[in-house]
């Protein structure tokens, strides 16, 4: 396999390719077909993957620091992946596994994360504006100070999640489970809370505007 050609973006068909532990920093991989590829432990920091297919790809433990991942990651395995400062705006992450991923300053604005597994993930301060998180598993996730303005969290699992000081203005939390969640000083003004479960949740200092009548406690 010609790794130099891959780095230069000259190879566009890499579906199912075995690139485990390959060193590909700053590689030009936009619009490349990497569906089902094995990228376990690969170094893709700073790589350009705009418009690429990574559906079903294995990215366990890969380094994607500062990478442009505005790509199709449907069902991809991103467990333990380093995504610090990565750009995932509008990315398709439906059904993706992000458990134990590193997500400092990662941008998920407008991303599609419905059904994604984010159990226990540290999303502190992460940008999730307008993201589609319907049915996502965010149990025990740390969303302290996260920007979830206008996010769709319909039916999401947020049991014991930390949402302290999170921005949930205009978010859709219909049918979401926030049992035992920490919503200390969170802003839920204008949020949809029909059928939302908030059993034993901390609501001290939480801004609920006129939505209190919707709550299911």
Q: What count of helical segments does DSSP give?
A: 1
Portion of residues within helices = under 10%
Structural class: little secondary structure
Quote the beta fraction.
Answer: under 5%
Shape: elongated
Instruction: Average the pLDDT over all residues and give the rounded result.
Output: 95
Tell me the span between the first and last alpha carbons.
Answer: 58 Å
Q: Major beta sheet, specifics? A: none
Number of strand segments: 0
How would you characterize the overall build of this protein?
There is one protein chain. The chain has one helix at 3-7. It is 2% helix and 0% strand. The model is unreliable at 211-217 (pLDDT under 50). With 217 residues, it is low in regular secondary structure.
């Amino acid at each position: 396999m010609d790794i130099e050609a891959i780095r230069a973006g000259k190879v566009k068909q890499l579906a199912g390719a075995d690139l485990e532990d390959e060193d590909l920093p700053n590689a030009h991989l936009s619009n490349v077909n990497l569906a089902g590829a094995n990228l376990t432990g690969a170094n893709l920091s700073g790589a350009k993957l705009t418009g690429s297919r990574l559906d079903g790809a294995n990215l366990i433990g890969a380094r994607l620091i500062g990478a442009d991942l505005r790509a199709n990651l449907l069902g991809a395995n991103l467990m333990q992946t380093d995504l610090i400062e990565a750009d995932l705006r509008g990315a398709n992450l439906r059904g993706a596994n992000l458990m134990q991923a590193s997500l400092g300053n990662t941008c998920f604005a407008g991303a599609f994360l419905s059904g994604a597994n984010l159990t226990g993930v540290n999303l502190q301060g992460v940008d999730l504006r307008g993201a589609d998180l319907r049915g996502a598993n965010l149990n025990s996730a740390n969303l302290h100070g996260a920007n979830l303005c206008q996010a769709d969290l319909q039916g999401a699992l947020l049991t014991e999640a930390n949402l302290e000081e999170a921005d949930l203005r205009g978010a859709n939390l219909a049918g979401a489970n926030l049992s035992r969640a920490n919503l200390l000083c969170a802003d839920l003004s204008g949020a949809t809370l029909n059928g939302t479960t908030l059993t034993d949740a901390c609501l001290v200092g939480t801004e609920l505007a006129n939505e209190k009548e919707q709550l299911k406690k």
